[in-house]
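Summary of Year 1 activities. Much of the first year was spent building the evaluation harness for sequence design. The harness presents a backbone, in tokenized form, and records the residue chosen at every position. We chose the following record to illustrate the format because it has been used consistently in internal testing since the harness was completed.
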């Protein structure tokens, strides 16, 4: 049987590069479109090094319709995994138009090109940030949406667009309906166990795990813990940290599911990808010190605006319908993050 070809937008990025590895190892052909706005080409060289297989790479912006159309003409694309997007919450508050243009308009162009090519199977990178206020810290897919910043709203808008596409198919009784999985990631951390690919933030990291790694290696003096007076077990914020390799395996399960009976008539469905357990900032720091033997100095700072006290996934739907669950524990996440950091203290160099 011919290998199926998966188009990975944003495939040179943190999660996308890990997805490329798992896809190649699962027997897919991989085509990447990335404008390298937040990544380096070296990540894909490393993917080749890990897998011994080649990725077809196009440096292009997903908003460039003719470039994207050319890729669809060149390859027999079976499914698109759509990672391309900007993801920094603070930056999205400063540059909302840039975020909406890149994320929302970029997705519209991608969907138009897919429709024209009659390729209608999509796995989309959504985020737990689409959820609104809730009485429970454990979020299920049916909980109301209500993102509180432009980044989160760009994800929620895209989700709405995708649901509208599926709804239009049922009105029009389309013979080739859209099949779409919206994967709501909780907090992806860690790196491939080879230490060859990982998260390579620009400048000072915003997220906890890369910040802790850079403190441990001596590039930053200490971690600022944003609040220790939350109503959580130790007062610090609680999140659902998930190993990036577990996360990308969820995408392969989603591709399988989209091809099965459940999506025979098409559809658009959201799935949480998380471990289903929360972990506090102090627990992360303590585990990091235990696993790496390095000191991670910290101080307590004021709460960060917009942060929730506690947020973790109910991952039961993904288990039931995608046959997926996270397998790696926090020690493995930390050990792999540290291997990447210590093997690549300056991240990718080119
Ligand atoms: P990343 O920045 O490492 O990867 C995104 C990639 O998309 C980058 O390589 C970037 O160059 C590319 N890109 C951005 N805009 C593009 C455009 N217009 N055209 C072509 N390429 C473009 O981020 P990541 O952490 O790998 O995240 C991947 C996806 O998952 C993003 O959509 C992000 O919003 C989503 N997500 C990430 C997290 C997280 O914590 N990392 C959590 C939830 C959701
Ligand atoms: N956090 C922190 N110091 C940092 C970065 C993050 O205390 O330098 C906390 C943050 O308040 C939250 C948790 O770590 O409780 C995870 O934050 P991150 O930005 O990694 O992910 P988020 O869940 O906010 O998307």
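For this record, the design step produced the sequence shown next.
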């Amino acid at each position: 049987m011919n290998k199926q070809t998966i188009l990975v937008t944003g495939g040179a990025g943190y999660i996308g590069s890990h997805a490329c590895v798992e896809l190649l190892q699962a027997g897919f052909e991989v085509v990447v479109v990335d404008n390298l706005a937040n990544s380096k080409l070296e990540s894909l060289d490393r993917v080749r090094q890990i897998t011994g297989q080649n990725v077809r790479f196009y440096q292009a912006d997903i908003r460039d319709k003719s470039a994207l159309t050319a890729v669809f003409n060149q390859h027999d694309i079976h499914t698109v995994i759509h990672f391309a997007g900007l993801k920094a919450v603070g930056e999205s508050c400063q540059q909302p138009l840039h975020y909406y243009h890149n994320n929302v308009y970029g997705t519209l162009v991608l969907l138009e090109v897919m429709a024209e090519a009659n390729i209608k199977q999509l796995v989309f990178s959504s985020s737990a940030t689409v959820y609104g206020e809730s009485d429970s810290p454990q979020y299920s897919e049916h909980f109301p949406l209500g993102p509180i910043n432009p980044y989160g709203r760009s994800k929620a808008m895209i989700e709405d667009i995708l649901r509208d596409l599926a709804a239009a198919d049922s009105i029009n009784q389309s013979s080739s309906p859209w099949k779409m999985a919206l994967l709501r990631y909780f907090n992806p951390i860690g790196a491939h166990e080879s230490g060859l690919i990982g998260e390579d933030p620009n400048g000072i990291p915003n997220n906890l795990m890369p910040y802790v790694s850079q403190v441990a290696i001596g590039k930053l003096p200490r971690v600022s813990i944003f609040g220790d007076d939350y109503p959580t077990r130790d007062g610090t914020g609680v999140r659902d940290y998930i190993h990036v390799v577990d996360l990308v395996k969820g995408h392969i399960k989603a591709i399988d599911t989209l091809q099965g009976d459940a999506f025979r008539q098409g559809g658009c469905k959201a799935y949480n990808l998380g471990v289903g357990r929360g972990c506090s900032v102090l627990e992360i720091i303590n585990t990091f010190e235990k696993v790496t033997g390095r000191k991670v100095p910290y101080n307590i700072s004021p709460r960060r605006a917009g942060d929730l006290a506690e947020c973790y996934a109910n991952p039961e739907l993904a288990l039931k319908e995608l046959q997926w669950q996270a397998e790696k524990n926090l020690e493995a996440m930390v050990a792999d993050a540290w291997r990447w950091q210590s093997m690549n203290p300056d991240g990718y160099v080119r």
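The radius of gyration is 20 Å. Quantitative recovery figures across the full test set are reported in Table 2.
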